[in-house]
Write a structure and sequence with these properties.
82% of the residues lie in helices and 0% in strands. By secondary structure, the protein is mostly helical.
Length: 257
């Protein structure tokens, strides 16, 4: 299975970087995230100057709460918008071009196909996030931000992105229409992101359930520098659940082929 996985993984990465998809997606992500970093850092500087001029030091400002936490919050929204562009073609394009049926005839397991494609998209996510590590490095020039909240914030972003990618892989396996796969991925990912907003308006039991299902609620701890095993388990289980559904979808396709 490992050689099959490696072959699918290498094939997917080669496709991404031989086409314009990866370059456009990563460029758009970096331009938007860079804009947010510049805006938030500029606002933080303005607030700091006002505090100094008024000698009002009752307001406790620090780079983690003032810059990095808002950046992580904005990056989580940007990856929600961007990642469906990566996953929508994973299997849907093969179905549209007729190569999916050919792939099913090869002695390749469904797990190798799903794993290879999913980990290739995870690699794109890691490459996408890597340049944003420049932001805390730039902050280091002005002050000495804590390292743990920065690392936990990136861990949370990566796990959140992994969950979005698994949702996208599943919907890409259901259709040959990339637009349908992308829109469905965005809709379901957004549902898991905002479902916690209804928690304060619900009864105690339902409120607890909605909070546990919310991607955003589990991300808050990471953005505060808290690495909780419960939050890691949530993201892993959500990712594995949709990858399991993808395997069942491919199994169903084999029966129909």
């Amino acid at each position: 299975m490992i050689p099959e996985f490696k072959a699918i993984y290498a094939r997917e990465l080669k496709y991404y970087f031989n086409s314009i998809t990866a370059y456009v997606t990563i460029s758009i992500f970096l331009i938007i995230s860079g804009y947010f970093f510049f805006s938030i850092f500029r606002f933080y500087n303005l607030m700091s100057l006002q505090i100094i001029q008024k000698n009002d030091f009752s307001m406790n400002l620090n780079l983690i709460d003032g810059v990095m936490r808002p950046i992580f919050g904005n990056l989580s929204i940007i990856i929600l918008l961007i990642l469906p562009m990566i996953t929508m073609r994973l299997i849907a394009e093969e179905k549209k071009q007729g190569t999916f049926e050919l792939l099913l005839t090869f002695p390749v397991s469904d797990a190798a196909v799903v794993g290879g494609k999913y980990f290739a998209s995870l690699t794109i996510l890691a490459i996408m996030l890597a340049p944003t590590a420049l932001y805390p490095v730039l902050l280091k020039v002005y002050s000495d931000p804590e390292l743990l909240p920065v690392l936990s914030g990136y861990l949370g972003l990566f796990l959140m992105g992994a969950a979005f990618l698994s949702i996208g892989t599943f919907f890409s396996s259901l259709t040959s229409n990339q637009l349908v796969a992308g829109v469905s991925t965005f809709g379901v990912s957004l549902f898991f992101l905002v479902i916690g907003w209804a928690a304060p308006l619900s009864g105690s039991t339902l409120s607890a359930v909605l909070s546990e299902l919310s991607i955003l609620v589990h991300f808050e701890s990471f953005s505060k520098g808290i690495i909780d095993l419960k939050d890691i388990t949530y993201y892993l289980l959500l990712s594995l659940f949709f990858l399991f559904l993808t395997l069942r979808s491919l199994e169903s396709s084999r029966w129909r082929a």
